[in-house]
């Protein structure tokens, strides 16, 4: 038996969706489990213990369809659930095709599933649970699960060397998710300054994560910090690729910052995570495994319900929450 799971993008979704593979392997131990994703997100699920093979979306629809059809799948689980993947599923030749119920794609699947409006568990939230719902037509009931990321021994050794290189001083290691994936998802930098200043009061070494094209923006941000905060930041810290970032993050004592791929990776690694949600992202869907201690998160609507502007999300609103997170994880 061959089973294909489809999730084209984004990084957080590709990671979250990987939770289904453990339960598929338990139910069908002899089955080959394949994952069709965009290649640029492969590193976040590389070395996954339950995924037997990765397929990547081709340059064209026909390239992707040809690759899928050649595998002769018995079951397809389309968690991406767009027109493109609905057509791939329908034309694949798989006898069982599962995805979410949508009026315009329901005929492409043998088992269109209606998403639950409320989560069964506050830990998993609807973000994880909706993926797990797609297993129910296969007789796999809901169980609490979280994504995991596996690192090789060599990746861990290299990460330790990187940390030693960029952090020769003792102290708790804190990763800052400095910027969001877009300006709209980035906590205003004047406010982020205050967040970092609070963290810098502790005995810490701070690594600031940002993309290469954000280097100039980070340099401009760095000079706005106090001398004390600047002294705590490993300014030359850099990683060569996503796998190296993941490995270094696995040795950190906490991650604090903008919601996105890095916060999802951090929680999957079991690193304490304090997430700042942008107003446009539904916190109740994405704050999986929040417990108010190891993982916590804040959203503008927790404090100002009538606004959708990041400019209204003052750091003093969640100062107590941040202090509690610091006390629990950085002292």
From TrEMBL:
Keyword Glycosyltransferase included in the entry's annotation: yes
GO CC terms: cytosol
Matches recorded under PANTHER family: TETRAACYLDISACCHARIDE 4'-KINASE-RELATED
Protein name: Lipopolysaccharide heptosyltransferase family protein
Keywords: Glycosyltransferase, Transferase
Database matches in CDD domains: GT9_LPS_heptosyltransferase
GO aspect biological process, one term: lipopolysaccharide core region biosynthetic process
Pfam families linked to this entry: Glyco_transf_9
Domain of life the protein comes from: Bacteria
Gene Ontology MF term list: ADP-heptose-lipopolysaccharide heptosyltransferase activity
Phylogenetic lineage: Bacteria, Pseudomonadati, Bacteroidota, Flavobacteriia, Flavobacteriales
């Amino acid at each position: 038996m061959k089973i294909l799971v489809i999730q084209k993008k984004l990084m957080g979704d590709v990671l979250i969706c990987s939770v289904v593979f453990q339960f598929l392997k338990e139910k069908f131990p002899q089955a080959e489990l394949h994952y069709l994703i965009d290649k640029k997100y492969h590193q976040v699920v590389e070395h996954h213990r339950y995924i037997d093979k990765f397929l990547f979306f081709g340059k064209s629809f026909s390239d992707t369809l040809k690759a899928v059809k050649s595998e002769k799948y018995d079951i397809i689980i389309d968690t991406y659930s767009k027109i493109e993947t609905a057509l791939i599923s329908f034309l694949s030749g798989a006898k069982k095709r599962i995805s979410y119920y949508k009026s315009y794609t329901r005929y492409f699947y043998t088992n269109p599933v209606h998403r639950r409006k409320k989560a069964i568990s506050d830990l998993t939230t609807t973000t994880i649970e909706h993926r797990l719902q797609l297993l129910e037509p296969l007789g796999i009931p809901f169980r609490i699960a979280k994504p995991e990321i596996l690192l090789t021994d060599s990746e861990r050794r290299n990460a330790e060397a990187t940390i030693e290189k960029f952090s020769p001083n003792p102290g708790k290691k804190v990763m800052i998710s400095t910027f969001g994936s877009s300006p709209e998802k980035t906590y205003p930098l004047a406010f982020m300054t205050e967040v970092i200043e609070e963290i810098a009061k502790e005995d810490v070494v701070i690594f600031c994560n940002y993309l290469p094209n954000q280097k100039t923006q980070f340099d401009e941000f760095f000079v706005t910090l106090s001398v004390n905060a600047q002294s705590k930041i490993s300014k030359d810290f850099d990683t060569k690729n996503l796998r190296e970032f993941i490995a270094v993050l696995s040795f950190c004592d906490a991650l604090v910052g903008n919601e996105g791929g890095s916060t999802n990776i951090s929680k999957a690694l079991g690193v304490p995570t304090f997430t700042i949600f942008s107003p446009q992202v539904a916190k109740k869907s994405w704050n999986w495994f929040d417990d108010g201690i190891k993982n916590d998160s804040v959203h503008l609507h927790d404090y100002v319900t009538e606004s959708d502007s990041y400019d209204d999300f003052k750091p003093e609103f969640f100062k107590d929450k941040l202090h509690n997170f610091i006390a629990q994880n950085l002292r």
